[in-house]
Specification:
two-stranded antiparallel sheet, 242 residues, 8 helices, single chain
C-alpha cells in the first residue's frame, strides 16, 4: 500500500513541470485561434482529442500488460479502452466544460445575441445555442475516437515497451482541452479569464494523466510491486517508456 501511494505521489510531482509548460502552450493556442470560428476549434479538437486517446490507450494498456503479463487480449482491451476513453474524456471534455461553466465563457455576449436575432442557419444552429455545451468525443465523434482507442491498445499489445516523448503526450492533451474551451468561448480573453483558463488546463491535464498512467491500470493488477524509482515513466529523460 505504501509503495502504491509513493508511486502515485512521485507521478503527480513528475507530471507537474510538463503540465505547467503544456498549460502555457494551451493559453498561447487560445490567443492564436480566439478569433477563429467555432467550427475551426471543433476541427482542431477532432484532431487532438483522438490523438490523445491513442496515446492514453498505449500508456494504460502497456502499463497493465507489463505488470500483468499472463492476461488475455480481451482483458487488456477492456482496461485499455476504459482507461483511455475515460481519461481523455475527463481531461479534454468534462473538466474543460466545468471550467467553461465556472468562468462564464460560454454565455453569449450582447453583441453575439444581436448577431443571431435573425436566427442561425442550419450549420450554425447547433453551435450557437446559448450556454456551455459538453462535447463527448467518443459519442459525437465515435468514428474517429473509438478506433483511436483500439489502435493504441493494439500497439500496446504487440509493442508494450513503445517509447514516446512524455512532453508530447502532455501537449496534445492540453491542446485538445484548449480547443474544447475555445469551441464555447464567447468572451474576450481578459487577464482574469486567461488566469482561470490556465488553472483549468493545468487541472484538466495533470490529474487525469496521472490517473491514466498509473492509478487506473493498478486497480486491475493482482500483485503489483511498485517502486517509484523503477516506474516505467522516467521523467528526467527525454523519452518515457510505455
Amino acid at each position: 500500500m505504501r509503495g502504491r501511494l509513493g508511486a502515485i505521489l512521485t507521478e503527480l510531482r513528475s507530471h507537474a513541470p510538463f503540465t505547467l509548460f503544456g498549460a502555457v502552450t494551451g493559453i498561447l493556442a487560445m490567443f492564436l485561434f480566439v478569433k477563429a470560428p467555432p467550427e475551426t476549434s471543433h476541427r482542431l479538437f477532432q484532431v487532438f482529442h483522438p490523438t490523445h486517446v491513442v496515446l492514453s490507450a498505449i500508456v494504460t494498456a502497456s502499463l497493465f500488460r507489463l505488470y500483468q503479463r499472463k492476461t488475455s487480449f480481451w482483458v487488456v482491451l477492456v482496461v485499455g479502452y476504459l482507461g483511455a476513453i475515460g481519461t481523455a474524456t475527463l481531461s479534454d471534455c468534462v473538466l474543460p466544460f466545468f471550467g467553461e461553466t465556472i468562468l462564464g465563457v460560454a454565455v453569449p455576449t450582447h453583441a453575439d445575441e444581436h448577431g443571431h436575432e435573425a436566427g442561425p442557419g442550419p450549420a450554425e444552429e447547433h453551435d450557437s445555442a446559448p450556454g456551455p455545451r459538453l462535447h463527448l468525443g467518443f459519442i459525437e465523434d465515435w468514428y474517429s475516437v473509438n478506433p483511436a482507442a483500439l489502435l493504441g491498445i493494439l500497439i500496446a499489445w504487440f509493442w508494450p515497451r513503445t517509447k514516446f516523448p512524455h512532453a508530447g503526450h502532455i501537449l496534445i492533451s492540453t491542446w485538445a482541452s484548449s480547443f474544447h474551451m475555445l469551441m464555447n468561448t464567447h468572451r474576450e480573453l481578459s487577464p482574469t479569464l486567461l488566469l482561470g483558463a490556465f488553472v483549468v488546463l493545468f487541472i484538466a491535464v495533470w490529474l487525469p494523466c496521472c490517473f491514466s498512467d498509473i492509478i487506473f491500470p493498478m486497480f486491475f493488477v493482482r500483485a503489483p510491486h511498485l517502486h517509484p524509482e523503477h516506474h516505467h515513466h522516467h521523467h528526467s529523460q527525454e523519452e518515457v517508456q510505455a
